[in-house]
Amino acid sequence: MLKKLGNIVREKNMSSLMTNVLIAALGLFSFMLLTRQLSKELFGDWVLYVTLATFVDLLRFGLTQTSSVRLLSGAKQEDYKKLMGSSFKINLKLLGIITLVCWSLYALVIAGDFQINYGYFLFLTWYPILAFTNLSWNNAMALFQAKQDFKGMMYVRLSNIGLFVVFLVFNHWLLHWGILEILWVHLVVNVVSSVWCIVKKWDGCLYLKHAEKKTTKELINFGKYSMGTLVGSSLLKSADTFIIGMSPILGSAGIAMYAIPLKLTDLLGIPLRSFTMTAYPRMSKKCIDGDMQGVRKTFYAYSGAITLLFVPVAIVCFILAEELVLFLGGNEYIEVLPQLTLIFRIFTLYTLLLPIDRFTGVLLDSINKPRLNLNKVIIMTLANIVVDLIAVFVFESLALVAVGTVIFTLIGIFLGFYYLRREIQIQSKRIFPEGILFFKSLNTYLAP
């Protein structure tokens, strides 16, 4: 019994899940500390800065990360240095372009004396530096995922967020530093993680001389679609924050309020992120090997099983929504507790739809149809932006912004199945039967 339990703990799905759970727990703790160290408006500015940074990070690494994982999953040892060196070179050039754009816009804002949200100002000022400090450790994530080395991934992420949480604890009790000092420390912990990855040769920095045009072109040809998909996927959530930040009525306080139920929803997505990280390389390998029946079966099993797992969790979260929101946000948000509770309950419906939507996108990438996945995400993003604009500027309602999330997810599921039925004859009716079989045949899917 103990041996079997040990095997399950060491299995890749569980390793991925435990890694994401630990990182998310620390992320949640840092979120709670920040809500209590910053005023509602300044916390909203911080959320806007981080959301913008995360969005542009996806743009940068989206060009290479998904394609690197796919190619590294079946790569020979001699191709490893070419792939990692080429990937790093691409991201280095993107860093230069983004730095030029951000600081040019900063100069324009200063010269024109434009009034913008402070969160946008922080981003234009500091993001290029953040982008440099997190370049190496972010580039290393593709290698960890391709090798299914979730232990290594966990240690690198812990060196980042773990140190930041330690600082926030000291800041809460002793230092009482403000938003700028917190931002500076955030930059420093990113430097620590990146230096570690450079020294261990995980990031590709020391393999720049092995970069070649053929490999670079291969990464970009696939990556241009996956980048669009990742950026679009990020916009599906971050557009809410960007548009709320533009509102003269809701502004930074509205961002802070909306961030609390959104953070709780992100926690519900931890198992989904963990299993997609293991499912994607597996489905990609089966596709490369020509085993399309295996690809379909893996899709059915994972999407069905995760949806079934989410049902009891969503029910409990719906019932305890008020308590969870208050626990995360603290007493400063008691006055708006009914509104935030309603938003979180809308999000619980979204979490039930998310697994099938997400896995249709992962499957399209796995069968080398990233353009179709990009089309799907673009349509979803446009739908979300339209609903957000109406919700924020016409009705001035954060709850309607959350409703838009449910709407675009339903659209994504419909489009995903439309494309997959056309390409590989996916049958939606097999999802839940195969999902049940997933639990009955764990040894088949939980392979170390």
TrEMBL record:
It is found in: Cell membrane. Keywords: Cell membrane, Membrane, Transmembrane, Transmembrane helix. GO terms for cellular component: plasma membrane. The chain crosses the membrane at residues 12-34, 46-63, 90-112, 118-137, 158-176, 242-260, 299-321, 336-356, 377-395, 401-420. It is a multi-pass membrane protein. InterPro entries: Poly_Biosynth_Transport (IPR050833), Polysacc_synth (IPR002797). The keyword Coiled coil does not apply. The keyword Nucleotide-binding does not apply. It holds the Pfam family Polysacc_synt. It comes from the Bacteria. PANTHER family: O-ANTIGEN TRANSPORTER-RELATED (PTHR30250:SF11), PST FAMILY PREDICTED COLANIC ACID TRANSPORTER (PTHR30250). This is Membrane protein involved in the export of O-antigen and teichoic acid. It comes from Flagellimonas pacifica.
